[in-house]
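Tip: read the tokens left to right.
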């Protein structure tokens, strides 16, 4: 019985600390406001589902292959894995593409969720 309680406590602790950092790159004139618009109005297109995000905002991050160069990215944390990519085509033009931080050929931003 004691072992079962410890196992349940360890599992609960592990699942509460799990998170995924998502990095969105802005193309063709897209802005950080376009990402925020997508978070509110196009959650399915962005691959998010119903759960919320936190610690969202614009940050300078090193580029994927050119880590000495930085660019403005929009990042946010979520409790579920973020597989593949998501994105949105904002109504005023531009392209927003999002992937998990550090994915192949994608920026790895340092944000503490």
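Filled-in amino acids:
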């Amino acid at each position: 019985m004691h072992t079962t309680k410890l196992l349940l406590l360890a599992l609960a602790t592990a699942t509460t600390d799990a998170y995924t950092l998502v990095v969105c790159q802005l193309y063709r004139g897209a802005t950080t406001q376009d990402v925020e618009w997508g978070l509110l109005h196009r959650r399915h297109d962005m691959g998010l589902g119903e759960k919320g995000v936190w610690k969202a905002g614009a940050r300078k991050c090193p580029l994927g292959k050119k880590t000495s160069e930085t660019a403005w990215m929009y990042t946010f944390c979520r409790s579920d894995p973020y597989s593949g990519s998501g994105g949105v085509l904002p109504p005023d033009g531009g392209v927003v593409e999002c992937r998990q931080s550090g994915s192949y050929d994608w920026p790895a931003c340092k944000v503490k969720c």
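The radius of gyration is 16 Å. Residues 23-113 form one domain.
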